[in-house]
Amino acid sequence: MSDDDQTIRWGHGALELEIALQEDGRPRLSRIGSPGETGQCPQPGAPLPLVEVTVTGHGRFWSGRNLIDTAVGARLRHRSHRSAREGDWHVLTLDLHEPETGLTAEVVYRSPDGLPVLRSEVVLRNEGGAILNLESVGSLVAGCLTSGDPADLDAADLLWAENDWLAECRWQRSPLRVTSPALNRRFHFNSAKSPRVVAGEGTWSSLGHLPMGGLTDRRSGRSWVWQIEHNGGGWRWESGERDNTAYAALFGPTDQDHGWRHPLAPGAEFRTVPVALAFAAQGGPDAAFATLTRYRRAIRRPHADHARLPVIFNDYMNCLMGDPTTAALLPLVDAAAEAGAEYFVIDAGWYAEEQKSWWDTVGAWEPSVSRFPGERGIHEVLDRIRERHLVPGIWLEPEAVGVNSPMAKTLPEEAFFRRDGQRVVEAAGRYQLDLRHPAARAHLDRVVDRLVGEWGVGYLKLDHNTNHGSGTSNHPEETPAAGQLEHNRAHLDWLDGILDRHPDLVIENCASGGMRMDYALLSRLQLQSTSDQQDLLLYPPIAAAAPTAVTPEQGAVWAYPLPEDSLDEVAFTMATALLGRIHLSGELAELGSEATALVHEAVTVYKSVRADLPQAVPAWPLGLPAWDAPWVALALHTADVTYLTVWRRPGAENTATLPLPHLLGTDLRPELLYPSASQAVPTWHPDSAELTLSLPAAPSAVLLRLDHHNLH
């Protein structure tokens, strides 16, 4: 770090930022990017403060959809700053003070050495004598994402990802000035009233949209991608134009979007949710997503699963669909073992008596007697799983309690989500536990410790199938969104406790597929369900885009062949999972011999490539896939090898050209890994760095390997 009287410079070899201190001590982030770049912001300095805070009675200078230009943020003054090194992380902490209210803000910037990523969070403290009612707090405010040249704004595109059940990770791209058109503001305040705003909602973090966004220059490829690391729907980002530059501001819950307010008493503090901003000087969004992938690996809790990547069979999708029994499971265990699976997960339904509705009775998590008859009950199945040298797993929806569950009567009222003093009921008969309450947490700890410690379960699939709206409040002064935030934080603490007690346990994160896809959870949990999509032809754009939201080694992708599928369709569904975490399912025991051979071949190929996946970063040779794209492609590459999955869907021409610019000038021979019987014809053109691929059938899909050791 270097300082002069007016500028704080901080960073490392991959990222540098400058903070300009104005004459009155107001700090402004004036540059962020590669070391040695010239200043981005128009003089005399960056327009936005380091922290934007809305406090009741202290609003904004400029009304609109924006939550920037706050009165308190503009009055924050620099008091001190310090830098430190914490292992592989560079840390800059700035202490700011607002004299009128007595509010202080501790801004903590972190960046992993060698990665152009800025992680930010803010701690507010009340050093005044009166309660301050917070309405919004920015975790990161970054102006100057483009230069002061209006042409840069004309070339800027915004990125955001729509996310719905069965249709996850659908990235969209639009010119920034579709939202913020070029206006002559010579005579007016130089800020739009309607920036692009993307906000989460409810109790799912990725309902409607991923908690992510981005900005890219379509001429130079200079790109930013950001993520909000929060495991609930209370988050927001906005991006638009301010003083002829683009800005992004990232928030947790806000009053404007979620009805969130937080009374900050004298002497108290409030911490924002962490956020991250990844940068690529060139290479477009692919390069920024590659950087974000490496960052996600740096913030994760260490776990052996991230390197081992065992093959998982789960009995749900296109298989038992929540109707497991001993008779149905035993042949599936044998078929999964013969296919090469290493874990076997019993999904939903194991706790439900066959003749009764289970939806509104869940919560005790005891095994069904009618589904698992006999002296051993469910342990007959668990024993068979272990006999076939598989690790047993089981599905659990820990936060749910049915209205007719015995737990609904034995747990105290305060252990549930409540609003206006009444329990919140959702989805025809479900309560949600509030994990701030010790009785709720103790109940779930007993359940998990029984399943893992007594039953010998080594894998938990944790689901969450209900959206309980705005949140929960324990008392009239607490808004539901504030209660939701504190529950989310208690949820993370509970998960940390599980893994502290059971460090070898593998936990999959699921919420109706991908409705809770965020790096608050995925910094702790080992896998992420990517979708509940059952149509093999609709899964490719989800599977291909999933590495934008989750590292490849954490992205669980279904491979679910059915007896009625053609051999091309069997190969298609198996290929879809080979660059993620393969989740075998489907009616394996009923497949014909040729289809079974294709399944076994796919698992063998997966085991041959999986050691490379934890080091690989993603790219999309045909661009981030549109939902109805006829051709879809995903590349994962390391320093030595590129893996490429390509899907041809019905209606597509039989040939596609895929640019792979990182291999320009490299002589190589594409190797067909799967399926070996494919009639695919790949042709590599080193001078143009393009792969031409012909697939004669539709649907069809292939996995290719491109070895480029000679680059070194």
TrEMBL record:
CDD domains: GH36
Entries under SUPFAM superfamilies matching the protein: (Trans)glycosidases
Pfam families cross-referenced by the UniProt entry: Melibiase
Gene3D superfamilies per UniProt: Aldolase class I, alpha-galactosidase from lactobacil brevis
Molecular function GO labels: alpha-galactosidase activity
Signal peptide (UniProt feature, chain positions): none
GO biological process: carbohydrate catabolic process
Keywords: Glycosidase, Hydrolase
Protein name in UniProt: Alpha-galactosidase
Lineage: Bacteria, Bacillati, Actinomycetota, Actinomycetes, Kitasatosporales
